[in-house]
Amino acid sequence: MKKNKIKDTYNLKIRLFEKYNKNYFDKNNSLVSDQEYDKLKKEILEFEKKYNFLNSINSPINKVGFKPSKNFTKIAHKVPMLSLANAFSENDLLNFEKKILNFISKNKEFKIFYSAEPKIDGISASLTYNNGNFVRGLSRGDGKEGEDITANLATIKDIPRKILDKDFPKDIDIRGEVFIQNSDFEKIKDKFANPRNAASGSLRQKNPEDTKKIPLKFIAYTFGFEQGLKQNKQSEYLKKLDDWGFKINPLNKTICGIKNLIKNYNEIEQQRSNLDFDIDGIVYKINDFDLQKRLGNVANAPRWAIAHKFSSSKAISKILDIDIQIGRTGALTPVAKIKPINIGGVLVSNATLHNEDEIIRKDIRIGDTVTVERAGDVIPHILSVDINKRPKNTSKFLFPNKCPSCGSKTVKEFNRVTKKVDAVRRCSSEGYDCNKISIEKLKHFVSKDAFNIDGLGKKIIELFWELKLIKLPQDIFKLDFKKIEKLEGWGSLSVENLKYSINQKKNISLERFIFALGIRHIGLENAKLLSKYFMSFLNFQNLSKTKNYEDLLNIDGIGETQVSSIKNFFANKINVKVLDELGKILLINNTVTREQNGLLKDKSFLVTGKLNGISRAEVKSLIEENSGITVSTVSKKLNYLIIGEKPTKRKVESAKQLKIKVISQDHFLKMLNKTS
């Protein structure tokens, strides 16, 4: 690899590292899991080690946390607040201890005692006490300087204002973690992504009265600067903290040997879901303070401590209940309600059980202790059941043979493609007859690739349904805005915005209209094929009268499965009524055959990233209407890569290497003489 290429790759990783830091520490928003973050950090350090000409002030070796916010006064820590090295395996711990033994010239027979303490996923804070009085509180900041958040910390009941004990040091910085208990977070979870973000955001409010409203807790675990501390061991110090009136972690233990650390780690992991606070691992510190001093620090981390992290994708929890959810197509999906557990920085309380067959195969029951897996944006699911921890007198879960919403019979259909009975059980109702299906169909109707109505999100649809403002799609275009304006959280401006959004969408293409109806097995591509066949809404609507369903088999790409779904759709009287009513309200544009000599003739396009105010489906439609071509991968055949927010870096880099034109959304629309 050439020197310039190495530098470019390195700088890219540094910028990404800084982005993660800014979002996590400054904006209280974790973009990636701890494991992904640590992997990137390791890659940067290995790069620097391999190529000694690389250096950056933003290197992980020079950084702890993130620079303090401008909203608060910056104050230097008397003793820096360092970060910790991470361990993810037993081998990492063995290497950690081996380095310690080598440093102090001891063989492996030398016994090292550790203080093992579950690592609460909160916000670090340093409390300064002079003559027993709490005088200042700082955030960690960048490790050297912290934010002066004294007034906010003073609102936390766990933090003593004055300590009268004669053994209390004359001058000391007591350090610990500010956090929110899971039970308290449940009351405010609509406002924050997870307890850690809630603690961070609350602690850094400009007005302490706002902080006071949040039930913050504080656990003490170490010290910074000290004058007059008499304890010689971490275990002794923790006991003294308790005597002084500070809360300490009740699960702290003093342990000798890596094998025993692993045993304790596994035990704590089993208890994790039963704790009322989030932990993301266990911190091991050498118990003896003299040995700590002897070992000192390396870069921005102590040699004598390490954080043994839990898996960022898996956790152990307990099934509290099994709920049956009903989707737009009538599919019954079982969802496990689990004891909330933090997986990769996300508080997980639901896990999909997929279908009836999955429950039977794994013999999943209410009350079971289970391993839950979460990978990226994939919905968390139950990986396995610990049969040994199953409570007595549990019974097998029986899937309902009647729809929990409308009482219709539930069925498993024969799949013509696989020649097998489907694993999914469905409500036999054909749409708006079932309340649950109806709500989901309405959500689909206003979704991004359908009518794409701003201001009508899932929660608003549910609210309007409950208030009986919307029951069928046509009701969206007949909303009583005077009633809406009287609702809590709604004002004249928001109502006007909603009215405008709805009116703007009364003009729609036939293909998007067909897709919006939510007919089973009719996705965007099939909707497009049907729109080209029918050409007009009237022709499509008349299918209920002509019943020429078999003719649809002549459409390339439409098979018996799709035809059967369309037939069932038109057989339902409510669906026919919905079509009639919408036809009176909307301007549904006839399908225009693709212009052979359009503005984008013979040009190929690919979209990556989030677009603003326009869906990918609409962009694709515009391209095809103008004789262009859409492709799915970056190759030499690609002419333009359209990028939105947060594009896939791999695609952008590949495009640049192949000298493909990389353009913005605005640039693309200008090519069509349009504006966003």
Describe this structure as you would to a colleague:
The protein is of the alpha+beta class. The chain has five domains: 3-63, Orthogonal Bundle (Helix Hairpins); 85-309, D-amino Acid Aminotransferase, Chain A, domain 1 (2-Layer Sandwich), CATH 3.30.470; 313-429, Nucleic acid-binding proteins (OB fold (Dihydrolipoamide Acetyltransferase, E2P)); 435-589, DNA polymerase, domain 1; 604-671, 3-Layer(aba) Sandwich (Rossmann fold). Helix content is 35%, strand content 22%. The strands form nine sheets. It has a five-stranded mixed beta sheet. A five-stranded antiparallel beta sheet has the order 16-15-14-17-18. Strands 5-4-7-8 form a four-stranded antiparallel beta sheet. The longest helix has 24 residues, at 3-26. It is globular, with a radius of gyration of 30 Å. The two termini are 42 Å apart. The model has no long low-confidence stretch (mean pLDDT 87).
